[in-house]
Every structure is written in C-alpha cells, then in structure tokens.
Amino acid sequence: MMTPRERFLIATELKEPDQVPVAFLTSCYAPARISLSLKEYLFDRQKKMSAQIKLIERFPGCTFIPNIYADFGIVPEASSFGGEVIYFEKEPPTIKKIIKNWEDVDKLRIPDVYRDGLLPKLLEEYRYLIENTPSKYEVDPPLIRGPLDLASWLIGMGPLLSGMYENPEYVHKLMAITTEAQINLIKALEEVSGGTKILMVCDDVPGLISPKFCEEFAFPYMRKIFQTSSQKLIIYHCCKSSMHVLEGLAETGIQVFNFSFENNLAETKRRIGHRVCLLGNVEPIGIFLEASEKELEKVCKEQIKIAGPGGGYVLSVGAACYGPDKSMDALIGAANKYGKYPIAIG
C-alpha cells in the first residue's frame, strides 16, 4: 500500500496512484492544535518540530506541504529588507511596509540572506531540522513568497496595484529586486540542504490583476524564479480566483497548483489539468471550517468525481489548513471511500 506522500508524488506526475491523495498546506496550524503559544512555536525549534510531528502523526492518512519545515510565518523575506515584524499571541506575525513612496525603491538593496532580518534564523532552523528530525519524516524547505507577494508586503497592496497603472517602471524595478532576493534565498536553502526535492511558492497577487498585467508584472518574474529551481517539484499556491489566467500560470513552469475555492473545479481541470496537478479546492471557511462531516463527505465526493479521473488530482482545501480535526478526518475518509482508482462514482 502506498504512503500518502507516495500517492501525492505520483499524482504530481499526472498519473493515478492507488487512490486520490489528500494533502494540506500548513501555516502556523500546528501550535493551535496543542495549545502552544505562537511565540513559543516560532522561536523554540524543538517545540516547533514536536508540534509538526504531532500534527503528522494525528493524520496519518494525508501528507502535509511542507512536511517538517522551518516556519516563521509569511514575514521572513520582507523582514530582510528592514521591515518591522509585529507579533501576536494567536495570529501569525505581520510586518510594517518599508516603502513610503515609489522613489524609495531606488534606495532598496538586495538583502544578505545570511545577515538580514529573520532569514539567518530561517536558514539555521532549516539546518537544525535536517540534522535532528527523525528519519521517518520528510524535511521540506520553507514556503517562500512569490515576487509580487513580497513586493506587496514592502509597499502595500493598494500602492502596488495602482503603481501598475501610474508607475510601471518602478514596479518593474521593485519586481527585479524581489525576484533576485528570492532567487538568492532559494540558493541559500539549497546550500543548507544539499539539494531539495520541492519548492513551494505562495503568491495571491496574480489572482487580483488582469491577464495583461500578469503577462507584464507577474509571469516573467515567476519564470525566473522557477527556472532557478528547474530540477524541483514546483508547487504554487494562489487563494484568489485565477480563472482568467489559468493557461498563463500553467506556462510559468508550475507542476502543482493549489487554487482558490472560487475557481470552477471542472473548468480548471479541463483547461490545465492535463498539464498541472491540481491541489484543492474545498471552500475553507463556510465548508471546511463549519460543515458537518456528512456535508463535507458530499462535497468531497463531488470533487473526486469531477477531478479524480485520469489522475493529477489531490484533494485539499483552497487555502492553508485552519479547519478542525473532524474536517480533516472527513476529507481523508472521503478519499478512502470514493477515491480508489479507477474512479467509479455514479
């Protein structure tokens, strides 16, 4: 019998494993389950590893993306540019923007991944996890921000979007800087690990802009980052509707797409499911967070029926994992019940 990770990897090759895999994105979810304070989780690497292992052991029927990993939330890259990190008791940290006006872009420098912000801690923790995690668990590289997503943290989403109209030359300058910074981070992670199997990039901004602006401000920079990682399995997450740019996203080099619940699953499968493994897309709030197990089973059955045939599909949520244990159990149970290949759901 295949392991959940093996099922997932076969699906990423656009093939049919023994059954539809289940995978969840993780994002500071582990400490909330065991009443560990977020600050303890973020800055005590042993407690962090323990919390992540407990999450994996609680749900043996699925895989997590990343699995065991250095987790400081979504702020490490922006912190390396000098942004002040704001910590909360029960919420992931956020960061203050550092660019007040577009002329400030001319003063930006590429961060030193070994010296600036939280990046040294990120690299140190990644090394620690590789050296100390029990061999039965996979250690994955941390999630990184896409170039537009990182730019939005530096200047703010509103100014970034309006800048595409009013100051496109400065947007390109900023994008060149964030892209180079992320490429440097990927190379540093490679130095620590000696070679990673996956790269996971999160960027919601392409879902907020037109196809024209995606072609100008998003896709060229995404391709540069993905080309740096051409030997890896590239997993891309966008929790905004991307129906207007599906084909363009598929052409950037992504191999796995974790997509929004706002996407039409059948159309997404039809348009790019033969090129990209689809990871999703149960609605994360009203359904995954609040629905009964019976309601969730019905939703998952329909998703498997639509996207499971032919392979290249992983049942998941259209966002990071914040649902209760019973909801995660329901997705795993539905895949066990309805996801055996060949799919035969009436």
Report on the structure:
By secondary structure, the protein is α/β, with parallel strands linked by helices. It has a single domain (4-338), classed as TIM Barrel. The chain is 45% helix and 11% strand. It is built from 14 helices and ten strands. The chain has a six-stranded parallel sheet. A two-stranded parallel sheet has the order 1-2. A two-stranded antiparallel ribbon has the order 3-4. The longest helix is centred in the middle third of the chain and has 26 residues, at 168-193. The chain is globular and about 60 Å long. The model has no long low-confidence stretch (mean pLDDT 94).
Outline of the structure:
The chain has 346 residues and is α/β, with parallel strands linked by helices. It has helices spanning 4-12, 30-33, 38-43, 45-58, 76-79, 119-132, 147-155, 157-166, 168-193, 211-228, 246-250, 265-272, 293-307, 325-338, and strands at residues 23-25, 63-65, 85-86, 94-95, 144-145, 198-202, 233-238, 256-259, 277-282, 313-317.
Key features?
alpha/beta; TIM Barrel; 6-stranded parallel sheet; 10 strands
Furnish the topology, listing elements before pairings.
Elements: H1 4-12, E1 23-25, H2 30-33, H3 38-43, H4 45-58, E2 63-65, H5 76-79, E3 85-86, E4 94-95, H6 119-132, E5 144-145, H7 147-155, H8 157-166, H9 168-193, E6 198-202, H10 211-228, E7 233-238, H11 246-250, E8 256-259, H12 265-272, E9 277-282, H13 293-307, E10 313-317, H14 325-338
Parallel strand pairs: 1-2, 5-6, 6-7, 7-8, 8-9, 9-10
Antiparallel strand pairs: 3-4
Helix pairs in contact: 6-9, 7-8, 7-9, 8-9, 9-10, 13-14
